[in-house]
Design goal:
Elements: H1 4-19, H2 32-42, H3 57-62, H4 65-72, H5 78-95, H6 101-104, H7 112-121, H8 131-140, H9 148-158, H10 164-177
Helix pairs in contact: 1-10, 2-5, 2-7, 4-5, 8-9, 8-10
Length: 198
C-alpha cells in the first residue's frame, strides 16, 4: 500500500513523463511585472485570453483606463481588471514587485492563488491551487477538501518544498487534457493510483 506522499510523487513523475517537458513559467526579475499583470488578468478567465503585451511597465502605468479596457475587453470583468492593472502597474513602477505572499496580496486584484503563481514564477516554493489542482488532488486522494486553501495546506504538509512549484504546472496541463469534468480515465497514466478511477 503506497502512502499519500509516495502517491503524490509517483503522480508527478508519471505526469511529467506523459506530457513531456514543457516550458514552465519562471520569470527574470525584470520581467516579474508581466507575470503579475498576466496573472491578475487570468483570474476567473480562460488562460488563452491573457496574452496581452504592453511595451513596458512605464507605458502601462501611464496608460488611460479606456486604453487598457479596449485591449482587455475580451476578458471577463474587464472594467474592474483594467483598474487593478493600472493601479498595480503604478505601484510596481514606484516600489517594485512585492516579494512575499502577504505583500503580494495587498496588491489590488491579487488573491492567494495569484500570489502563489507569482511566487512560483520567482522560483520561490508555493502551491497555487486553482480548480484543476483542487479537483485532481481530491480525485487522486491526496486531499479531502472542499476549499482550495484547504487543498493547498494538505499538499504543503504532504510534499517537500522542492516539489511545490511543480504541482500547479503539471496538474493544470492534466486537468485541461485528460482529467476534465468527464475524465478520460481509460487513457490516464494515473488510472491505477487514482481513487476516483477505481
Amino acid at each position: 500500500m503506497v502512502t499519500k506522499q509516495e502517491k503524490a510523487l509517483l503522480a508527478l513523475t508519471r505526469l511529467y513523463r506523459y506530457y513531456g517537458k514543457r516550458k514552465r513559467l519562471v520569470a527574470q526579475q525584470h520581467e516579474l511585472w508581466k507575470v503579475v499583470i498576466a496573472t491578475i488578468l487570468s483570474a476567473r478567465t480562460r488562460d488563452e485570453t491573457t496574452a496581452v503585451v504592453w511595451p513596458s511597465l512605464t507605458d502601462l502605468a501611464r496608460a488611460k483606463p479606456r486604453e487598457v479596457m479596449k485591449v482587455i475587453r475580451p476578458i471577463g470583468f474587464y472594467r474592474q481588471k483594467a483598474r487593478y492593472v493600472l493601479e498595480v502597474a503604478r505601484l510596481i513602477a514606484e516600489q517594485g514587485v512585492p516579494q512575499t505572499r502577504d505583500q503580494l496580496m495587498k496588491l489590488p486584484g491579487v488573491g492567494r492563488k495569484t500570489a502563489n503563481i507569482i511566487l512560483s514564477a520567482m522560483g520561490k516554493p508555493a502551491i497555487a491551487v486553482d480548480t484543476h489542482v483542487h479537483k485532481i488532488a481530491n480525485r487522486l486522494g491526496l486531499a479531502d477538501t472542499r476549499k482550495p486553501v484547504e487543498t493547498e495546506t494538505q499538499l504543503m504538509k504532504l510534499l517537500p518544498k522542492r516539489y511545490w512549484n511543480k504541482i500547479n504546472y503539471i496538474f493544470v496541463i492534466h486537468g485541461k487534457t485528460l482529467c476534465k469534468r468527464k475524465p478520460r480515465c481509460d487513457v490516464c497514466p494515473l488510472h491505477d493510483i487514482c481513487d476516483f478511477a477505481s
